[in-house]
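Wait, mind explaining this?

_____
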Amino acid sequence: MQIQFYKYQGTGNDFIIIDDRANLLPDKNTQLYEKLCNRRLGIGADGVILLRDHKDYDFEMKYYNANGNEGSMCGNGGRCIIAFAHKLGIINGQTSFIACDGPHKGKVVDKTIHLLMNNVDKYFKKEEDFDLNTGSPHYVRFVDSLSGIDVFKEGYAIRNNETYKVEGINVNFVEIADNNKLDISTFERGVEDVTWSCGTGVTAASIAYLVKCDAADGEHHISIKTKGGDLAVNLTKSSPSLFENIWLIGPAENTFTGTIEV
């Protein structure tokens, strides 16, 4: 069977997106999705996203990691599928869609894609580090300088330690560049490598930063620099442990399209 695919990237986090409203592709085919993501044997990507019909929402997002397994929520992938649905004419500027972690809202403002993340109502301190879930599980460590960190080596070690090796965790190293400005690098489970950007990681880092700084309740805007470009998180700190109205904001680009035999 020959299928058409669309390659998208959001600040360097790249995805193969397929319009599967006809339900032609299987829900679970680890070998297929892993091969599609292989940068030498397939198309190459950090993940595969299927756009499906849903009776209660504009569409459904099915996400598969580069290892071929169904993944948890992907923030940059969510922004890319909003851009894709807009390109197809499924939505017109605003959307409500369903993903593995529940419903999301989104909007297209010029070339910038806004994705509403789920509320976060708890986090765990690990000495000076943080463990929290923003649709995917994240470990956040603040460092003096990213240039002095071997992100792959140290991220791999944390992701595979006794606590996290079974389920895995995404590991973020964050440098506070300035007031409400962060630099970040992320080791992603499922990809098992350092990626150019991670949307749920950027969200987790923003929340951890507000906790670390003992920020006042209210609205906050955080600017984040990733290897692949700049993102922003707008959110409301409603209490010491409750974060609401969390918007992940940044670009999403269709880099090329093609067909492949599967």
User: Anything to note?
Assistant: The chain has two domains: 2-108+252-261, 124-251.
